[in-house]
Design brief:
Strand content: 15-25%
Shape: globular
Number of helices: 28
Helix content: 40-55%
Largest sheet: 9 strands, mixed
CATH topology of the largest domain: Rossmann fold
Structural class: alpha/beta
Mean pLDDT: 85
CATH architecture of the largest domain: 3-Layer(aba) Sandwich
Distance between the termini: 75 Å
Oligomer: single chain
């Protein structure tokens, strides 16, 4: 068979075509030569590049690839200013683009690629721009295919050889075939000529260099020896659809722990409803997906699934996991690659209604609450097999979201490390009433004992308010007293009073002595990596000018200037792509420190963090339990985590006099409660107990911390 027999179209677009299966697989299967400019280099691009290469590899076809390193803005600036050689920058960027394959297919496809490199039938070169103003990025996308009869196909367009490019992005390519007419033949010749100039380093403004040996050696670590040349046949059916797309299954590389199996059994015994109260990092998502697979088997795969999570970045994490357990999900949110997700979901609903064809939709809390999504959700009836999985489900205890929990969906899972809402019994009750009882309570103590999370050391760091800060705190406290009300026989704080409480909390969070104390503590870590600093969300005065600035900006700048450490913010202000880049550089050690406010509290997975400084003091268990669990994720070469917790005290303990306790009571109780909770499971709890005793001795009061905290919750609970 030749290209002529393939009925190649003049163009392919993601809205009507599957570019991989409609074009790349059949064309590459008949090719003896493949020349490709792929944009950015990564293991993901190599894996996707392998689609269609199995037969070509068997036939000994020749593949030539030109790609560009993913240079960051900092890399380019460093090279242009002479701080780093271009060779070093390129090598580092290429090395950082190599990641472990996520599943069996990726592993086998990467093995195919590196074997082809080792056999000399695949060659890679690196391209970049070098102008009078410095180094820059080459990002052209062209391709040339040739069959054994001399027929040639060329294309140009937006297609990226990456997982996103082939599966998720909206792409289009224009195709030119040498045998169709003179015009197309000339276009093919032009593409061939341009690629030849590229390959031989004869293109103006561009420099072509060999692929660095050090990076190649790193790639070769993925070589297994035996190549599976049936990958395309195994992974794709005859109609070009992934065979696993309609199959719910537990991935081969996943083994559930006993407590996860118990959770699944508990959920089944509760008529497929329930709450998984599991500590952060203990595998809540895999447990929920295992439930999905079990239910799908019971329903003969006639199952629709909605997965809801708070943030867009969590959607991405769920997508990465879920695609290995079931079908390619529908991604529904404001920044979805599928701009027409609503229509896609409606079509999926109609197919499910008419023929019970399964689908999975992953969305955010906000999109779930939208009119678009609610109009679709309400179309299902109670008899249909629909599963709702809500991640970080404590958020759905709020008045707005709890009212939208769909009664017409009968199969339900709630996931949270902190399902009981802080000072909101009514919201907590709504969650239990809807989702049912807890199927498992897998707390932090058990997770550490089982080795699911790592051990930790806890260091409470006292920070004292300065005089003007103390005066403002006392003034706010007096104002709050005016909003004390009696409700149902209980003394509570009114809603207006709670606003003042919030303002007082912000005052404590940005206590002026925190940054100097942080810098002093971090001095001994200035040569280390894997450090996280939790900053407050407040505004404060700059130490040098007195101008107002965000606390996180002041913290980040201070670490950079005073300690000369490589630090970067990780906040909601960065785009999803920027966050991924920051995570990547942090994990590779190019950033020593990341500073955050809240976006790491729920869902973001950076297991490599070894040392954390918590400057933003919180007495809300939901927040500090989430933070602690996030820091205890297991990672290679991580024996234990270190947690430095800034404890705000109204005044130096040596200055405390009789009568100060009443005015300082709220601060002291909140800080003691958090200290006590952190210390309970710490390896060095005795040191914290000493400080707790010192604080109580200073004020001349002794009490049960947990009991006092319960009273405080009732006081502030509306």
């Amino acid at each position: 068979m030749s290209f002529v027999d393939l009925n190649v179209q003049f163009s392919y677009r993601s809205d009507v075509d599957d570019i991989a299966t409609d074009f790349l697989v059949p064309v590459l299967s008949e090719s003896i030569s493949y020349k490709r400019s792929v944009g950015y280099f990564s293991t993901s691009s190599l894996i996707s590049l392998s689609v269609g290469l199995c037969k070509m590899a068997q036939n000994g076809g020749k593949v030539e690839i030109i790609c560009s390193p993913q240079l960051s803005k900092e890399d380019i600036e460093a090279v242009n200013l002479g701080y780093k050689t271009r060779e070093k920058a390129i090598t580092e960027a290429l090395a950082l683009s190599i990641a472990e394959p996520k599943d069996y297919y990726e592993s086998e496809r990467l093995n195919l690629i590196v074997t082809m490199i080792a056999m000399g039938i695949l060659d890679i070169k690196i391209a970049f721009m070098e102008t009078d103003t410095g180094i820059n990025i080459y990002h052209e996308k062209i391709a040339l295919f040739e069959d054994k009869y001399g027929n040639k196909i060329g294309f140009n367009g937006s297609l990226n050889e990456s997982e996103n490019g082939l599966k998720n992005n909206f792409e289009s390519i224009d195709i030119y075939c040498s045998w169709k007419n003179e015009s197309e033949e000339k276009r093919v010749e032009r593409i061939e000529e341009n690629f030849g100039k590229l390959w031989n380093d004869k293109t103006k403004k561009l420099i072509i260099v060999p692929f660095p040996k050090i990076v190649l050696d790193k790639l070769m670590t993925f070589k297994k020896g035996q190549v599976n040349f049936e990958l395309d046949n195994e992974q794709y059916s005859n109609n070009g659809i992934l065979k696993k797309d309609s199959i719910f299954h537990v991935p081969e590389d996943v083994t559930l722990r006993e407590y996860q199996k118990d959770a699944v059994s508990g959920w089944i015994n509760q008529n497929y409803q329930g709450i998984f109260s599991m500590s952060t990092g203990s595998g809540k998502s895999y447990t929920a997906l295992a439930c999905m697979v079990d239910l799908a088997k019971k329903m003969e795969e006639k199952l629709a699934v909605f997965i809801v999570c708070p943030y867009i970045h969590l959607v991405g994490q769920w997508e990465e996991d879920e695609v290995n357990w079931a079908c390619t999900p529908i991604i529904a949110h404001s920044k979805s690659p599928d701009k027409n997700w609503e229509q896609t979901l409606i079509k999926a609903y109609k197919r499910f209604r008419n023929s019970e064809k399964p689908f999975v939709c992953i969305t955010t809390n906000d999109t779930f609450a939208s009119e678009k999504m609610q109009n679709i959700i309400t179309r299902f009836n109670e008899e249909q097999n629909v599963l709702l999985i809500v991640d970080e489900a404590h958020n759905f205890g709020s008045k707005r979201l709890s009212e939208l929990l769909p009664e017409n969906i009968k199969y339900r899972i709630a996931l949270s490390a902190t399902i009981k809402r802080h000072m909101d019994k009514q919201g907590t009750d709504k969650l239990f009433n809807y989702f049912g009882n807890e199927c498992i309570v897998y707390d932090l103590e058990r997770a550490i004992k089982d080795g699911a999370l790592c051990k930790y050391k806890y260091y409470p760091i006292p920070v004292v308010l300065e005089m003007d800060e103390l005066e403002e705190y006392l003034e706010l406290t007096e104002k709050i007293k005016k909003f004390v009300i009696e409700e149902n026989g209980k003394i509570k704080i009114s809603e207006d009073g709670k606003l003042l409480v919030f303002k007082r909390s912000r005052l404590l969070a940005k206590a002026r002595q925190k940054i100097p104390t942080l810098l002093k503590l971090m001095e001994k870590y200035k040569d280390d990596n894997s450090i996280l600093v939790y900053s407050g969300a407040s505004t404060m005065e700059k130490s040098e000018t007195g101008e107002l600035t965000k606390m996180i900006d002041e913290v980040t700048d201070s670490i950079k200037k005073s300690l000369d450490m490589r630090v970067h913010k990780f906040t909601a202000e960065e785009t999803l792509d920027e966050r991924q880049e920051i995570k990547h550089y942090f994990e590779k050690g190019l950033y020593q420190v990341i500073t955050a406010i809240k976006c790491l509290d729920e869902g973001v997975n950076i297991p490599g963090i070894k040392t954390a400084f918590i400057m933003s003091s919180s007495r809300n268990p939901k927040e500090f339990i989430q933070r602690r669990g996030r820091l205890l994720r297991r990672s290679k070469n991580k024996k234990y985590a270190e947690i430095y917790d800034f404890i705000t005290l109204p005044r130096d303990l040596s200055d405390v006099v009789y009568g100060d306790y009443e005015s300082d009571r709220t601060i002291i109780l909140g800080e003691l409660f958090r200290m006590n909770e952190f210390a309970k499971l710490a390896e060095n709890r005795n040191k914290t107990e000493v400080l707790i005793t010192e604080i109580m001795n200073a004020y001349g009061v002794f009490f049960d911390i947990d009991e006092e905290n319960k009273k405080m919750e009732e006081y502030y609970d509306g």
